[in-house]
Amino acid sequence: MRDHWTTANEIDMLTTMKSKDTERLIEALASNWQAEMRGYHTYNTLSHQEAEPHRRRTLRNLALAEKHHADLWAARITELGEPVPEYDGSEFGEAGSLANRIGGQGLALRRLELEESRDIARYGKQIEDLGDEASTAILKEVLADEADHYITLGGLIRHHLPAEPLAPELAKHALDELVATREEGQPKAASWIGDAIYGVNDGLGAIFGIVSGVSGATLGNAHFVLIAGLAGMIASALSMGSGAYLAAKSQREIYEAEFAREREAVEYNEAEARELLSLTYQVRGLSAEDADHFVGHIAERKEQLVEALARERLHISEEGLSNPWVSATSGALSTAVGAFIPVVPFFFMAGLPAIIVAAIISLIAHFAVGAAKSLITIRSWWSSGLEMTAVGAIEGVVTYVIGIGIGRM
Question: Measured at the alpha carbon of residue 293, what is the angle toward residues 289 and 295, in degrees to the nearest 5?
Answer without folding.
Answer: 120
